[in-house]
Amino acid sequence: MKPVSLIQFLIEERRAGHINAELSLLIEVVARACKRIAVATGKGALGGVLGAAGTDNVQGEAQKKLDVISNEILLEANAWGGHLAACASEEMEDPQPIPDGYPKGNHLLLFDPLDGSSNIDVNISVGTIFSVLRCPDGATEPRAAHFLQPGTTQLAAGYVVYGPSTLLVLTFGHGTHEFTLDREIGSFILSRRDIRIPEETGEFAINMSNQRHWEAPMQRYIGELLAGRDGPRGRDFNMRWVASMVADVHRIVTRGGVFFYPLDAKIRDKGGKLRLMYEANPMAFIVEQAGGAATTGRERIMELQPTGLHQRVPVFLGSKQEVELATHYHREADGAQG
Ligand code: FBP
Questions:
Q1: Ligand 1 centroid to 243 CA: how many Å?
Q2: Is 118 near ligand 1, meaning CB less than 6 Å away?
Q3: Closest C-alpha among 220, 228, 222 to residue 204
Q4: DSSP, residue by residue, 18-38
Q5: Which letter does DSSP use for residue 91 in this model?
Q6: Residue among 120, 207, 245 whose CB has most ligand 1 atoms within 8 A, to mutate
Q7: 112 Cβ closer than 6 Å to some ligand 1 atom
Q8: Which residue, 161, 196, 160, is CA-closest to 176?
Q9: Which residue's alpha carbon is at the smallest distance from atom 13 of ligand 1?
Q10: Ligand 1 centroid vs 117 CA: distance in angstroms?
Q11: Residues 333, 262, 130, 142: is their CA dihedral positive or negative?
Q12: Residue 13: is its pLDDT beyond 70?
């Protein structure tokens, strides 16, 4: 089969009427920026990019040098790209307007410039996660409120994994597709079209060290998985936890599985660990378009009405059967139907 480059694929999507020219060019700009981040992460200690930046982000988390570098690469690339009205990042409190003197576009971009920060210095896969929204009409200087749109309004979502190979996984709402970076020619090449996540799985991902803090329905659900064939599920389940959401989700997009970052007593007051706008919503769109499911344990993530740019939510996503069962246990415990 003749290799299909990302550019060719985007032209196909435009001809199919799935995207317009501006969105297509925006994705090209984001993909190009991620190629630069791949080079930076690949340099590691030789590039002096490992370790702490000595600053904290809006969430009060210590920033890694590569968090800051990746954020700057994405901001700079999208400032002059001409396809955005503004962008928002995990690393910045407020949205970043497009500098005067640069053409503005009709889209809003949200991103987690480098997901899996705790794994950077130990050479484990990290990634970039992004989500694209339409800029509301008349919003010439977009504020945070203009970004607070439900996940169902996303025009595009994607992630890039910086691992043994660099992979871009993308959706425009017409299936989920994977591209592999051909480092020799510097182009993303289509490696899997219309990905399907198996509805059934024997593999789960969760940070088990938080078990004592989980709600009762989560204790019950995971307890049954751990009981395996001797328990009510009647079969064994295996566990994986990379602690880089992009890597854990990519494993699920590749061979199935289920991922949980549930609410627990430690993070209850924050509403969860993972961020709705630039982690949960884009991953939910990608997973649902590949035949999986994504809930908070109670509600469909993409139907949530956001209340804050850096809002955190519980995340259950992956193979449909397991997401639906774990969600059923939570709703049942709440006395709700379904
Ligand atoms: P950031 O690295 O972007 O802050 O993301 C949060 C994250 O690292 C996810 O990638 C991952 O799934 C989770 O936190 C790991 O949490 P924990 O350290 O509790 O296992």
A1: 5
A2: yes
A3: 222
A4: SS-HHHHHHHHHHHHHHHHHH
A5: T
A6: 245
A7: yes
A8: 196
A9: 243
A10: 7
A11: positive
A12: yes
> Tokens representing 175?
């299936």
How crowded is residue 123: how many other Cβ atoms within 10 Å of its Cβ? 12
Cβ of 67 below 6 Å from ligand 1:
no
* CB of 117 closer than 6 angstroms to any ligand 1 atom: yes
Helices 65-81 and 21-43, axial angle in degrees (round to 10): 150
Return the sign of the alpha-carbon dihedral for residues 275, 277, 280, 286. Answer: negative
The C-alpha atoms of residue 113 and residue 337 are separated, in whole angstroms, by: 38
Distance CA 194, CA 192 (A): 7
Distance CA 3, CA 83 (A): 27
Q: Label residue 80 by pLDDT band (50, 70, 90).
A: confident
Ligand 1 atom nearest to 117, measured from its CA: 2
Residue 264 near ligand 1, beta carbon < 6 Å: no
pLDDT tens, position by position, 275-316: 999 999 999 999 999 999 999 999 999 999 999 999 999 999
Q: Rounded distance, CA 262 to CA 247, Å?
A: 18
